[in-house]
Predict the 3D structure of the following.
Amino acid sequence: MKRRSRTRGIRRIFSLMVVSTIIVIFVAGCGQPPTMSPSAPAEEGPEGEIIIAQGVDATTLDPNMHAETPTNNVNIQIYDSLLMRDSDGELFPGLAESYENLDDNTWEFKLREDVYFHNGEAFDAEAVKFTLDRILDPENSSPQYSHISAIDEVRVVDAHTVHIVTSKPFPTLPSQLVARQIVPPKYTSENGADHLASNPVGTGPYRFVEWVRDEKITLTANEDYWRGMPSIKDVVFRVVPETSTRMAELQTGAVDIIVNVPPHQAESLESSDATYVSRAPSSRVIFVGMVTTQPGPLEDVRVRQALNYGIDVDAIVDNVLMGNGIPLASQPVAEIHHGFDENLAPYPHDPERARELLEEAGYGDGLRLSMDSPSGRYLMDRETSQAVAGQLEAIGVDLDLNIQEWGVYVDKIMSRQLTDLFLLGWGNATFDADATLYPFFRSGQQFCYFESEEMDEKLDAVRETMDMDLRAERFNEIMGVLSEEAPWIFLHQQMDVYGVSDRVEWTARPDELIHAFDARIRADN
C-alpha cells in the first residue's frame, strides 16, 4: 500500500509534546499529574454573562450516557472528572489529587477532601465507584463502556482513596478518566437516571438552572467551586442550527462564541473590530464509515478501496473547507495521536483505478449505495457529504444521500440502524490511537462495522501494552492493515474554527472543548 515519501511537518512540536505527556503517565509509580491548575479563579465574585452557540442541542445531561462533544461541552461546566487536561493537552489534577501504579493492574487514586456536589452531597470514593460501576454495567448500555471496559473492579479503600483494578494492563486509563465525569450516588439512586439526565448535579464550576430543549441551557456560577469562583457568572448554551444565523448573531452581539465558522466567512469576522477567529487543529477526524458486516458490495475490499480512490480529499479540503482540514493518511487517526504511522500516505485520487476495482468486483456497470449524514454538527458536513456523493457518482456509484438533523442521526447511530455509508466525526481527545481503534474496529463494540478475529487480537494486545515503543510498533502494524482493508473512506482531520466576540477572552483547544471557566470578559466590557 501507499507509503509516504516524506513526513508531514504539521504540528510536529505539539505531537511530540502529547507523546511525552503520555510517556510520563505510563511510568509506574510516577503517574502524578502536575500540581498546579492552569486557570486562575476570579479574584472577586463572578460577573457578567456569555452565550455560546452550538449547532445542536445536548442529547442528555447525564455525563456517563453519551459520546458527543456538543453534549460534553455543557456537561464539563457542571461536572468534574478525576483528572483534567489543559489547553496544551497536559494532564492536571481534578477530583483526584494524585495517582500511581501499585502494579501493572492496580491504580491508586488519592481524592480531594471537602468537595461537595451542588446539592450538598459530599464527593468521596463511593461517588467514584458508583460512577464507574454504572458506566460498566451492561444493563445501562453506556456508550462510554468500551473506553474503560478493561476495568475489573473499583475498590473503596477509604473515603478518599480508590483502587481501580483492571483485568489486564491498561496504560491509557488516566487519559480515559478525563472524560468520565463523576455523578452523585445518593441523588442519582433516589431520583433515577432519567431525572439526572434533565436535572444534573455535579461538583463543577457551574450549576444547572434551566433546559429549554432545542433552544437553550442556562447555567450559573458555583461560588463554592473547589478550584475557586468562576470569573463569569452566567453561561448560556444556545442551539442555533443554521450557520448563517450563528454568524449574524455573533456579529450583532447576541452571542459570544460560535462553533463551525464557515471558512469562507471567517475573513469577515477577522476584519471586524467586534469579533475575532480562534482556530485549532482538532483531535477530531472526519470520515465516511462503511457497514461491512452486512451482505452486500461493501464486504468486498476492492469496492472499499475503489471508494477511497474515487474521492479527491484535497479538493474537498481546498474547495469545501477552504484549507481548514488536513487529509488523513489512509489511517483513522491524525498526526497528533500516539500510534500514527508517518510512513502511510493518503489514498491518491485515481478514478481510473477506482473503476478498475469496481469492474474486478463485478460492479462494472455501477452500483447503488445509501449514505447517512448529519447537518450542522461538523464544519461544512452537509457540503462535504454532497461533495463525496458527486465524486462517487463520477466513478459509477449512485448514492442515495440522506441528510438528517443531529438528534435523529444520533438515535440512528446508537440503535445501529446505519446501512452502507455514513459520514461521522470522531474526536479522540486522549491523543492515543486506542480510543479510536477499539470502539470502531474491535468486534462487539458500539461503533464497530468491521469485524476480524485477527484485528481483535491485535487490538487486545496493544491495549495492554505498557511499553511505549512496543505500543507504537503494534499500532503501526494495525494502521497498515486498516490502510489495506479500507473500512472507512479516509477524509480529513478537522480544523476547528470558532468565532468569538471581542468582549471575551478565549482560545480554541485541540480537544474541541469550550471551558467557560477558562474564559474571561474583558475589563472594558
